[in-house]
Design goal:
With 186 residues, this protein is α+β, with helices and mostly antiparallel strands. Helices cover 47% and strands 20% of the residues.
Length: 186
């Protein structure tokens, strides 16, 4: 299974690129957001590969959150790669997270291929899809995420953990210790 591809752009359209990788040219489907982010002639993309009876498709992303959004969407019954890619082209991951959080069916219906029924089903199944609007690669975010996961694995509920860790800073172990102290009082 392919997870990434790096090469020189031979041809670029808003919805796909042809990448020359050591003499082999691959067609990689991309979102409009990824297309706009590509500025260099050489590019490295995160890839989701979908193999079917009649096709071997590659979907490329510059941003890990966009890839996660695509991968999550295609797991929903009735949402294929075409609709998932249209959603990635319509919304950034942060905007999509807000749409899901606000349960905004009207905004989701703007995506080509999504009607009212599909929009409602997507919002129900993606209730937990939230992207942090802060810089995703910062150490604080990864420490906070790790601490939340650690506390969830100990049996605490997400709502309780969020209350306990609000305003806390530090590395993962400090956050877990702080969270445990607070959670004992709740």
């Amino acid at each position: 299974m392919l997870v990434g591809i790096e090469g020189t752009i031979e041809k670029k359209d808003p919805t796909f690129v042809h990448l020359n990788v050591n003499g082999l040219i691959y067609e990689v489907n991309i979102s409009v957001n990824t297309s706009n982010a590509i500025s260099e002639p050489r590019v490295k993309l995160l890839v989701t590969q979908i193999i079917r009876e009649d096709a071997n498709l590659l979907f490329g992303f510059m941003d890990m959150h966009e890839k996660r959004m695509f991968d999550t969407l295609i797991k929903i019954n009735g949402v294929g790669p075409k609709v998932a890619m249209a959603t990635c082209s319509t919304f950034t991951p942060i905007t999509f997270s807000r749409v899901v959080t606000d349960r905004d069916v009207g905004l989701l219906k703007r995506v080509p291929g999504i009607g009212p029924k599909a929009a409602s089903r997507i919002l129900v199944e993606l209730a937990d899809f939230i992207v942090d609007s802060r810089e995703s690669s910062s150490v604080l975010d990864s420490s906070m995420s790790d601490a939340v996961l650690a506390l969830e694995s100990l049996g605490f509920k997400k709502e309780q953990i969020k209350k306990a860790l609000s305003g806390a800073t530090g590395d993962t172990s400090e956050l877990v210790k702080f969270g445990l102290k607070k959670l004992q009082r709740l």
